[in-house]
Prior knowledge:
Chain A is an all-alpha fold.
Amino acid sequence: MARELTVEELRREAKVKLWVKKFIAYTFLSTGALAMIAPFLWMVTTSLKEPGSLFSYDSVWWKDWIPTQFVWQNYIKAWHVVPFARFYLNSFFVTVCVTAGQVVTSSLAAYAFARLNFPGRDNLFFAYLATMMVPGAVTMIPVFILLRSLGWIDTYKAIILPGIFTAYGTFMLRQFFLTLPRELEDAAKIDGCGYLGIFWRIILPLSKPALATLTTFTFMGSWMNFMWPLIVINTHEKFTLPVGLSYFQSLHTTDWSLLMAGSLMMIFPIFVVFVITQRYFVEGIKLTGIRG
Amino acid sequence: MNRTKRLILKNSTKESLAAFGFLLPNLIGFLVFTSLPVLASFVLSFVRWDLFSPPEFTGLDNFIRLFQDPYFWKYCWNTIYLMAAIPLSMTGSLLLALALNQKLKGIVFFRTVYFLPTICTGVAIYMLWRLLYNADFGLLNVTIAKMGEIFHLPLKGPNWLTDEEWAKPALIIMNVWQTMGGYNMILYLAALQGVPRDLYEAAEMDGANSWQKFWNVTWPQISPTTFFIATMSIIGGFQSGFDPAFIMTGGGPNGSTTTIIYYLFNNAFQWHQMGYAAAIAWGLFLIIFIFTLVKWKVFGKAVYYY
Lengths: 292, 306
């Protein structure tokens, strides 16, 4: 009898402890969330303020957060002072080409590395791995010189082609393909299915999560890429969004509302893509994190 | 017998041919944009070339110059200084992951919010922080000044991005904000979920409190993840720093936020010293290579693999 009571008490104590723990965790998480979101909120409110009103440093702090009137024209203005629509289109075109190219070429190569036997396979794969350890800075200059001698500087090709071929995508997909069961392929082979058929009908459908991950990562990376387009593109009309935005900043350093409106317009599509593909993102991080 | 042999031979040639076909597009790109450029870069580092006049072979001159270049060492130091963000951010990631691992409701919400700065990274965010750090009207200094008014203290925020003393800390703070809820937190969360339950049960039987459980069970169990994150962040750290500095400080004030990669960019694409820039790239490679070797020698065995 007495023993049962102590168990009950222990349980109650454990329950209280759990509640305290949860309370602390929630407080901590909420504070963190606030710190993460606050700059974004400020960005939104700033983008809606009357241009120039920021410099009337009034003494009411909260006014910094709530615009006295919502100036939606800032967005229209930001859209027009630089060829924003054109930047969008450029970015979209380049990003789609890079992503599609990378997913197609990487998955083809990854299949060869994961499933086919050919002389020199392991050596070649080792060469791929080895280049992953060389910093991008090393290849940047020769690639620039190569593109220059081909007369491709200031063309979209200069952004797209070097962006398509990464050892990383091949490596990641190969690792994933290796985890797929071979039985289905063997059955398909007996049914007279060729390599392309196996790749297309079995490997690819089974690899949707890995392909989605690679697509998402490549898309985001390419959309945000700043340094390379900055190096190879000179004409304003051909700028991608990040380079265009930086150019915008150099023109309107003091127009905070316009700068923030422009920045938000750049972030928005990425935000939408992220919310939709969240799951793949988390899975992808775990997948790629495992290689360590 | 002979026929089967021939058939097998034929099959393996067929397979090799197929493999070659699958590989070809990627292989061409790999050769043209990765492996040959690595070789070219090596050759380039022994040459003086401004892209306009013909290249001139100078032997080891570029490397000797690199070794004696005070700016290079200064920018190396900047790069390493800025990596102070790594331990800070990792601590934040671990704390957030520990909190998220309490089987709470709304994990997806929190995870999404924490991920926002990582997702939106890039020019837009750096522009935002340039404004936040504005000495006179930026949110940060306005808030600090308000705090001073409320508590009657003479508080005044620093000139974050224009003061040599504060520019690096400013970039570090931004970096921590940007990265702590991102990839590393997700990796830590996955690692925490992978710690076997019975280890905690055994620890509880021995009367361990939460603190002891963390140091004796959780910390050693997730140390491969810590090791992985630290290694990747440091290797990435050596190569980073261009985008934020270009947008927010232009590498200044007085070169205090110029990193190795920024210096390389300036040498190659502003000053057209292609050979010297290639030498900087190889210097960067060497630094990373040495780091990797040291890592294996010193820390290689200190990790708990299970």
